């Protein structure tokens, strides 16, 4: 896009949550979606973040103590400040994107634990959300967009009882909404545990949907 006389590049962060990206149905669909989007918008900048290759700091007792020591200005030690900055750097790198593409398989009806770990690290007060006594919680990432590209062994369509077992999609929608991101597109490759014909059909539907939504993104 052009801002005055300066060309401003739209930055897309693709967050890959599958450990087997080469064989991942969600990652494959996401790559197709991004290829289609780039064909329409060749000036975009796309970065792929493979969570399984990322050295995420543990969000353990040490991190929590550092968090409260720094945020409450409770005489945080230099070591605590350095420890907390690890999370802040990851959060700011996440926040810097204009758009997000998440490719994630369903694991045990929810999301892969590596993605939950990443979410816990980058979701930080003062960086991408705030709380005040007057207004409660408010997200800081308004104006950004996200595409959620799922895969799952079973199918969980709206209107059927199986939908109650799906904690993958509601969790992602809720988290992004908490950050202020409410422009969300969703693509699902499912079922992936079925006959070869059924799997091929589900992947074809996902690719078609990716092509249809690439322009809207």
Characterization of this structure:
With 217 residues, the protein is α/β, with parallel strands linked by helices. The protein has a single domain (2-57, 95-214), classed as 3-Layer(aba) Sandwich (Rossmann fold). 39% of the residues lie in helices and 21% in strands. The chain contains six helices and nine strands. The protein has helices spanning 25-40, 61-71, 78-95, 113-122, 168-178, 196-214; strands at residues 2-3, 6-7, 11-16, 45-50, 99-105, 129-132, 136-139, 145-151, 183-189. The strands form three sheets. A five-stranded parallel beta sheet has the order 4-3-5-8-9, sandwiched between helices. Helix 5 links the parallel strand 8 (145-151) and strand 9 (183-189). Helix 1 (25-40) packs parallel to helix 6 (196-214). The longest helix has 19 residues, at 196-214. The two termini are 14 Å apart.
In short, what is this structure?
This protein is 39% helix and 21% strand.
